[in-house]
């Protein structure tokens, strides 16, 4: 090793030492606080806190194992591995609960970030059951029914608060349509595959049956079950026969090269109606 | 039960005491051959269930896409009298136990047109004679 490299190594080691000193100080401080009862757990531990603790222990165990491996010692039968597996299973079981809480958590985070809620936020509106009770008197209704109904225009009863769309301009509407088209384009097969390619996480492989095929299979299965149960045979209509031919035969090969329209993302305009018609015709054969 | 590379298997076997019969779904495996005719299926079922083939009625055979497997229904009656009582006429006709007289299409249409000219109970009389 040359003199430069030695000097660099020495300076780096010094920074490591100072930083570890800081970390130990912080940890000691926290430890003291916990010992004194600064964090109360009388009401039990909340879901999010539990998640933090689990993730933390997971990281600790993981670093321990990497340390072992970097030193060259074996990790066979190490209790750290078992702990890792256990924590991982618990985290995966927590995932559906997390999904259910997602809306609440997102709302709270948004209010914290934006600093207060907007009064015209459409998400504030929810069903008000008090509005469903008839607050009018029923006495005078039956007498004046005949005369009044002819003159009055029918007003639908106002039961719940609805989002007001009267001030929406053409531009707003077009923008909304464009946004929806963009969202739809993001979930096409092309972009999904691109996302999978560039994603650094582990890939999930699932058995894929297209929606059309699964629909046809489900229908066929229902029909055969009914037939076997009732000891009879159905006559297949022309529409069903063509559908079955489309799924089972070679005609589905023609649709291999038909991809969805992603012009909303590439060109920033909504897909034209004419292009989709062209696609429909060629799918016939 | 294999004879000439055709195997018969039965599924969903049920004894129907109300109609005095045994009913089941019949699966025929015949790779490389055409669908087996119903008379052969009846004989094989007769051997399986140790009855005569004349009380066995099978129908509704559909071959799966690609060939090789056919599914159908089979009924085995306790006796031929019960069969004649409970089976629909067209299936008895297939076995030759019943004769259904069928006039031709043209005759039926002409009879209908002759009936249109008459009102009430005379319609039944009209059909009897054929005008020349």
TrEMBL record, chain A:
<feature type="compositionally biased region" description="Basic and acidic residues">
    <location>
        <begin position="214"/>
        <end position="224"/>
    </location>
</feature>
<feature type="compositionally biased region" description="Basic residues">
    <location>
        <begin position="276"/>
        <end position="285"/>
    </location>
</feature>
<dbReference type="InterPro" id="IPR007146">
    <property type="entry name" value="Sas10/Utp3/C1D"/>
</dbReference>
<dbReference type="GO" id="GO:0032040">
    <property type="term" value="C:small-subunit processome"/>
</dbReference>
<protein>
    <submittedName>
        <fullName>Neuroguidin-like isoform X2</fullName>
    </submittedName>
</protein>
<feature type="compositionally biased region" description="Basic and acidic residues">
    <location>
        <begin position="195"/>
        <end position="207"/>
    </location>
</feature>
<feature type="region of interest" description="Disordered">
    <location>
        <begin position="195"/>
        <end position="225"/>
    </location>
</feature>
<dbReference type="Pfam" id="PF04000">
    <property type="entry name" value="Sas10_Utp3"/>
</dbReference>
<feature type="region of interest" description="Disordered">
    <location>
        <begin position="264"/>
        <end position="285"/>
    </location>
</feature>
<comment type="similarity">
    <text>Belongs to the SAS10 family.</text>
</comment>
<dbReference type="GO" id="GO:0000462">
    <property type="term" value="P:maturation of SSU-rRNA from tricistronic rRNA transcript (SSU-rRNA, 5.8S rRNA, LSU-rRNA)"/>
</dbReference>
<feature type="region of interest" description="Disordered">
    <location>
        <begin position="138"/>
        <end position="173"/>
    </location>
</feature>
